[in-house]
Amino acid sequence: MAEPKERMEKIFCEVFEPLPRQGPGSRSSAKRALDLCGSLPASPAVLDLGSGAGAQTFHLAELTTGTIIAIDNHAPNIERLRAEVAARGLGERIHPLVADIGKPEHEPESFDLIWSEGALYFIGIEEALRLYHPILKPGGFFAFTEAVWRKEDPPGEVKAAFEDYAGMGSAQDVLAKIEASDFSLVDHFTLPNEDWWDDFYMPMQRRIEALRGKYAGDAEALAALDEISREPEMHRRHSDDYGYEFFVVCRG
Description:
By secondary structure, this protein is α/β, with parallel strands linked by helices.
């Protein structure tokens, strides 16, 4: 029998891997951020960091006519993305790769746009800004979302949910890191509440209920599903305490 941690990870993947998105976001927010990148070339070279199964990758493909390299370190996400790219006939434009966003291997000044939704916490904002500045072409844009505190003293339940993300701060903290970097801020905005629910939490809740049927009578699996289900319920109660902010910065 699998160890409890391994079992939890397996159930976590069963919940999250089939979802339309693996984190908050939407096409409308992607378009809003992309519209801030006003001086992009007609067909930009794009790098999507931490692509997951590619929801935002396909938004970028719809909203631009460029080529996109999508990287994620979770091979099943990339396998699913490759299959969908093939099904949509986008193989010449979207190139999914299993890779570590903390160890970029791209040539200097390779991209017009670097994009990342909800993935930079793996390496931290400061490190991301340092690592990816030389990979952007001069005048290129880096657009990313980051979890931020919206209140100074959130409840203990909320703090505990983000205990693995020690670097989480306010939007002003992220702006200070941008100011200290070699990038210039273009603008930023808060993701609306529907970006959490429409393609993320509502499908997650449906998936959890489906898996409760699959694992009926399996107390360990049901306990894991109960733990995962606390995330959307916490957001329902405490969305004023934290959120995701979309930042767009430019390399001069």
